[in-house]
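Encode chain A's predicted structure.
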Amino acid sequence: MSKKIRPIILAGGVGKRLWPLSTKYNPKQFIPIFQDLSLFDLTLQRANNSLFKKPIVVTSKKYLKQVSKAFERTGLKPSLIVLEPESKNTYSAITLAALLSNEELGKDKLIIMPSDHYISNNMNFYQACKKALKEDKESLYLLGIKPEYASSEYGYIRLIEGSSKKIEFIEKPTAKKVKDLLASNNVYWNSGIFIFGKSWFINKSRQSDPSLFKKIDSSVRKGTQEGNLFYPENISFSSIKPISFDYGFVEKCEDISMIKLDAGWSDLGSWVSLMKLESDQTPSLYSDEATLKTERPWGFFQVLMETDSTKVKLIRVMPKQKLSLQKHNYRSEKWFVVQGKARVTREDEQFTLELGDSINIEKKQKHSLENLGSSPLEIIEIQTGDYLGEDDIVRLEDIYGRAGLH
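Encoded structure for chain A:
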């Protein structure tokens, strides 16, 4: 019988960086981005391949309804759905699933699949997984992505030649550090997708942090199962230290290798990566009202979503154009640069922002935005406040003669 891989699908995150699109009640992995399908749906479809055994899903109790409906939509059957009573980050989630993965695996492997990532080429993804299966050495295999652009939002992997530690991890470096990293050909994004043997991982985890492992193991042994639902025992689970898999295991691991993945990967963890996907793949992220654009002398804005206390806009500023120097009495704003280069004035300070940079504008702060480049500047603006009307604009200076007008 050929080797197979057991997917461990992580689906308990809340996608904080994509607020207010992603919330703790409906996080980004369950939002129907592609027609009626969510990223979680696409992850289940990706796992529905002869390469894989039935998946184990680790999620929160509050997301059981979304998870169950996704399995119904895709037709895939889970091996087990683990319902965590509270979030303890990814190390405990992965260790729980490894302990619960039944013994039929033998020496077969587990693959960690975050449910909020997008992969456009599943065939290349399967090929990368097969490379790990062919390896006889017991090791942690991680999938690395060749960076497409400079970003401080991702963790980076640097391959070190001639060193006993073959891989160096750089977690979300500064913009300057990123530029230095990308000057080298041996640097990759850390995809967060890992492949390893079950027994090997459990033994390594037990040795790496015996106290933490004991608490996780206790929550499993004292837990309860109802059909394909597993509930870790609350008291043991509550004592578990929240720690990421990268920090708690990966960065300490000496038996580690990287496999290159070229499959159109994105973690969709920010407004920058989301808008890049929006332009490349035209997913249906927003309601019909988001198609309406409001023209301005400097370009246009487009309302992407709106609630009683938040509004999300896409703002496009044409080359060498500038928004008025203005302030708002009732709302604060946060700007994310998703394309181009911006000069931002805030009170008496000036900032130059590039792709991935962001800035906060508080109520009553004077501010302005200017496109310094020769191509359109795009920012995502997130407004928060008691009143979000377009008339809450006090224009102080304006190159188009609108000073004093709303």
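The chain has two domains: 5-275, 286-397.
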